[in-house]
Amino acid sequence: MTHHHDTPQHHHHGHESGGGLSLEEKLERLLTHWIDHNGDHANTYRDWAAQAETHDLAQVGALLLKAADLTEEISRQFEAARQALPSA
Fold first, then answer.
1. Angle of helix 58-84 relative to helix 23-54, nearest 10 degrees?
2. pLDDT of 33-72, one tens digit each?
3. Over 66-84, what HEC string results?
4. Calpha distance 79→33 (Å, rounded)
5. 7-12 contacts at long range (C-beta below 8 A, 24 or more positions apart)
6. Strand, helix or coil at 17?
7. Nearest alpha-carbon partner for 39 in 64, 72, 4
8. What's the rounded Cα separation, in Å, for the pair 42 and 60?
9. 61: closest CA among 72, 70, 71, 48?
10. What is the gyration radius of the CA atoms in the chain, in angstroms?
11. Global pTM?
12. Cα(37)–Cα(53) distance, rounded to whole angstroms?
């Protein structure tokens, strides 16, 4: 199982370019992207946790589930930031 980052935003971390977008618009787009991207990662961590647990790697599975939970907490913070934008 592999995970590829197809979006140009992920490969190019100089997110400053935005072609005429306001800072608020850029942040809204970035936060939305990061929330979606984190969701994908959290799902992947949960999938691998389940596989680990079925192969008698309970501690690894538990740690991966914790990582998924932490990733989802980060997304909640991103969502709070998005809601705090003036345009929200």
1. 170
2. 999 999 999 999 999 999 999 999 999 999 999 999 999 9
3. HHHHHHHHHHHHHHHHHHH
4. 11
5. 7/33, 7/37, 9/33, 10/37
6. coil
7. 72
8. 15
9. 48
10. 16
11. 0.76
12. 25
Tokens of 27: 């942040």
In terms of Cα–Cα distance, which of 40, 37, 44 is closest to 15?
A: 37
Amino acid identity at 31:
L
Q: What is the dihedral of CA 68, 71, 77, 81, to 10 degrees?
A: -130
Residue range 13-37, pLDDT digits in tens: 455 555 799 999 999 999 999 999 9
pLDDT at 52 (0 to 100): 98
Q: Phi/psi zone of residue 19: left (φ > 0), alpha (ψ -120 to 50 degrees), beta?
A: left
